Amino acid sequence: MRMPAPIRLRELIRTIRTARTQAEEREMIQKECAAIRSSFREEDNTYRCRNVAKLLYMHMLGYPAHFGQLECLKLIASQKFTDKRIGYLGAMLLLDERQDVHLLMTNCIKNDLNHSTQYVQGLALCTLGCMGSSEMCRDLAGEVEKLLKTSNSYLRKKAALCAVHVIRKVPELMEMFLPATKNLLSEKNHGVLHTSVVLLTEMCERSPDMLSHFRKLVPQLVRILKNLIMSGYSPEHDVSGISDPFLQVRILRLLRILGKGDDDSSEAMNDILAQVATNTETSKNVGNAILYETVLTIMDIKSESGLRVLAINILGRFLLNNDKNIRYVALTSLLKTVQTDHNAVQRHRSTIVDCLKDLDVSIKRRAMELSFALVNGNNIRGMMKELLYFLDSCDPDFKADCASGIFLAAEKYAPSKRWHIDTIMRVLTTAGSYVRDDSVPNLIQLITNSVEMHAYTVQRLYKALLDDISQQPLVQVASWCIGEYGDLLVSGQCEEEEPIQVSEDEVLDVLEGLLVSNLSTPVTRGYSLTAIMKLSTRFSSLNRIKKVVSIYGSSIDVELQQRAVEYNALFKKYDHMRPALLERMPIMEKTATNGPSETVQTNGETDSTILDTKHLPSISQPASQANDLLDLLGGNDVVPIIQTTVPTKPASAGGELLDLLGDLSLTGGPTPTPASSVPMSQPPFLLDGLTSQPLFNDIAAVIPPMTAYNKNGLIIEFTFERSNPNPNIAVITIHATNSTEADMTEFVFQAAVPKTFQLQLLSPSSNVVPAFNQGSVTQVIRVLNPQKVRCYCEPRTHSASYRSRSSEISPFVLKHLQKSDECLSGAKLNIAKLKLRAASH
């Protein structure tokens, strides 16, 4: 019994559109799919084309249609054009190279490529160019190349696009299409020209050899582009008054690729680019697209400076366009070119700043990024004013990035330290909750280094605390500054603005309020408690401060409780050390990575160099205080420690700084003496032979140079002398030589002292010790001992301890990182350890 004729595609579409619910539509689709399956099983050739067409429509709606793949192949094998058209369309939609079924159509495509009808050939080319696998492309590349040489424009343009797909799948077949590609540019048909430019672009992007080969076609491409912009009205190619803008854009992209990095090609296209930029109408979006491609081409090739200025001016006009997309691409392009053409972009600064007020968030973000890129020393004040205004009114999503950008720009171009501090404080006041974590320590470092601004800064921050304590980074910086410079706040020494009258109790009330405020984070409370503790050496309200500190000794916040317990210990057990421990922080200098500048490490109360003794503070602490300080830092133990790893961070004051140089021998001999042979009851002092009398000019004669280290080919020698301008300064010079066959790299020598002394560590001559003793690395250490406290040291090895003698040289800790016996293979560094202590006369 023959089944009734299936409904037509148009009727199916009308029926599906009448469905009121998704379930009703699904039911209709399932019913029709069942009918189609039954028709396929009966091998009904009459309505196969109609059923596949309906199946493709269901596929477009998102329903499964994979069961129609073989039916598509049957339609492709049909001799009727209408069947082939639906079959090839179904193959492009339902098949891809991941399914082996598509290989069954290779022979059909090959036959159709050689068909006598151009439309059948076009169907085969479209299908191969859409979903052909690498195997199919290898098998059929020859037929595609033949069709590229045909005189039929309809087939040539389709063959060119198919060749692009073949090259993407099988790049090694690129040379096959080279002869035919050269002739495509002489075609007058715009469709062939367009596809040939696409093919040339693909070949140039994939092969540097093809790129250099096709550079000789630049004059021909320039002529084609010139004819397009100079030709009159052509209804066949006209789009909004512009002749074939699609072809113009494609040619401009190809010129950009050909002219990049090539002087001759860039010179050949400069004139035509200027003509396109000046003759293209900008009132329509079509013209703006051509101008945008022109700008990108000018910026990528080696164009003339005047042409680049013209391109940036075009982008500046784009910023005034009402279309948001055009404004966005203009900002993005200017952001890419601002580094190379900074002055030209600066001319449009006011327009760019106006884009900060745009309602579109993407435009605002690009405008913000470009505004920061335009900041320099000349416009820093005006640009910061606009950006601070933007920070006040922008969405929370922008505040973090905007604040970070202001911080970086202010640090780089600040006209004065006061302006810098005011700007950072303005940011913290406006967007304190959105700034990054490193903003607090960076501002603290800035304030510390601005000595003349301490009184002004602490007064401004105190006022800010009275107004608002919700911005936690601002509160943290203010707490730190009040703890450091609270005495300047109370004394009213501010000269930059009218000083305010503040009492000690008022300052303590503010800090105590921060401790109990619900707005304060645990970190902020820690800052506040430390500030109160520091004020114990600056204010007279000692009993009140002790009471506050003792209260938080039982806090449920572990961090706050630990701080309070340690501060209580300072009040009780180490009260004689409290003034030294709570003294003002020295200037925080950034470590120089290279250059001739000296690295100064100051552990005393002043930031001046140790050679300028007239600025040194008078130190009244007893000599035993140095012992207590070293005991507090863990300096009493004499257990040998073996260190096998190398810390990559700079040495800091503390126990780890005092546990260095385990293999350093100061005896001058090649073999160290066991510690058991040295009487422990009366330890000798460092640097035997130094008397307590000020015969400093003869120190070199008293102590000859000594070999401090001799192992694995590395020899380190010490020489000693006394500074002539200041006899309290001892100068130690190290000389490091290398007798191995390879250079020793990353050579570092560091030193540190207790707070009663001062140390200056000059920059080394190099960080590479040359091989075969062909050179040496030298470094100078200056140590100031104003109290002439005697010291002894405990250099440690892996098996024993040793001691040496000294008189008035200051105690110091030498840290030496040298290459071990594995240094030639780039393995690990070995850390030797040394401890030194001060002792009273």
TrEMBL record:
Keywords: Cytoplasmic vesicle, Golgi apparatus, Membrane, Protein transport, Transport
Domain (GAE): residue spans on this chain: 701-816
SUPFAM superfamilies in the record: ARM repeat, Clathrin adaptor appendage domain
Topological type in the membrane: Peripheral membrane protein
Signal peptide (residue range): none
Superkingdom in the source lineage: Eukaryota
Subcellular location: Cytoplasmic vesicle membrane; Endomembrane system; Golgi apparatus
Listed GO CC annotations: AP-1 adaptor complex
Gene Ontology biological process terms in this record: intracellular protein transport; vesicle-mediated transport
PANTHER family in the cross-refs: ADAPTIN, ALPHA/GAMMA/EPSILON
Entry similarity comment: Belongs to the adaptor complexes large subunit family.
Protein name: AP-1 complex subunit gamma
Source taxonomy: Eukaryota, Metazoa, Chordata, Craniata, Vertebrata
